[in-house]
Amino acid sequence: MTMAQERIALVTGAASGIGLATAELLLKRGMVLVLTDRSEEVSTIASQLVSRIGGRASAIRAELSKEEGVLQLAVDVIKQHGRVDVLVNNAGIHPKKNGDKFYLEDISAQHWASVMAVNLTAPFLLSRELIPQMKARRWGRVVNVSSCAARTAFRKTSAAYVASKHGLIGLTHTCAAECASDGVTVNAVAPGPIQTGLTQAYTTEQRQASAQSIPMGRYGEPMEVAAMIDFLVSDAASFVTGAVFDVNGGSVIV
Ligand SMILES: NC(=O)c1ccc[n+]([C@@H]2O[C@H](COP(=O)([O-])OP(=O)(O)OC[C@H]3O[C@@H](n4cnc5c(N)ncnc54)[C@H](O)[C@@H]3O)[C@@H](O)[C@H]2O)c1
Question: Which of 216, 167, 189, 235 is nearest to 18 (CA)?
Fold first, then answer.
């Protein structure tokens, strides 16, 4: 890839799990990486990636639960890099209550709003702010990280999380349809249980039971989701848009 074709990729929730694995793969692909996360570790993590892999990666610390935090991120990334070619909306939360999900009767309006803010509103705002400049250059890739919880009913996922991840698929479909003739693709991945901080919040018993219920008999690794995202943001995926890709060890076979 020449300097003129160098692609700028913004990955949210990049300080750990699926986001970090994605940042690593895209850096290996030769993209210029912008890792963003609310974690104060994110700058160190970006530097460590560069020392290990080479290439160019930097970090912007951002709090995506607030509109002003998301909009500031969009301003900062454009100020620092001039554009974003690849947007991976990966940051997400699934709050637990003593290692278990929040059941319907325990979900306050505030809890609901906080899950929606990170999982659905932040991807919407970043899409709104960054897709128009992709369309103007007639090349762009957006991947939204949904969940297998939006593909079928799982008893261990809470209504707020499930609704937010269904919403993300709706956002994916609409953005894809709006951008299809402008060289910008928008897709979603729907991971099954993956070994990350998010699933560590479950109790050991719950994780064992969950692993047994997966046809492959194990949790996935963050890299196994990142590999799908890596394909979707590549030139090779130029005819793929508006699609949802299951990465779940056979948990949901549709
Ligand atoms: N791990 C799984 O089993 C699984 C399954 C399906 C979907 N997912 C989805 O994958 C995505 C990545 O999750 P993960 O499993 O890697 O979890 P993770 O907790 O390891 O990583 C999530 C990252 O997002 C960041 N983040 C959370 N809230 C934020 C906020 N308000 N502002 C900025 N950054 C914030 C966290 O600091 C963290 O670094 C999420 O959207 C999650 O819903 C995960």
Answer: 189
Residue 252 lies in a domain: no
Summarised one tens digit per residue, pLDDT across range 240-252 is 999 999 999 999 9
| pTM score | 0.97
Q: Which domain holds residue 69?
A: 3-247
- Least confident range from 118-132, 190-204, 227-241: namely 190-204
Of ligand 1's listed atoms, the one at least distance from the Cα of 91 is: 24
What per-residue confidence (pLDDT) applies to 2?
Answer: 47
- In whole angstroms, what is the distance from residue 188 CA to residue 168 CA? 8
The answer to the question of residue 20 being in a domain is yes
Residues with CB under 6 A from ligand 1: 13, 15-19, 37-39, 62-65, 90-94, 118, 145, 147, 191, 193-194, 196-199
As annotated, the active-site residues are 161
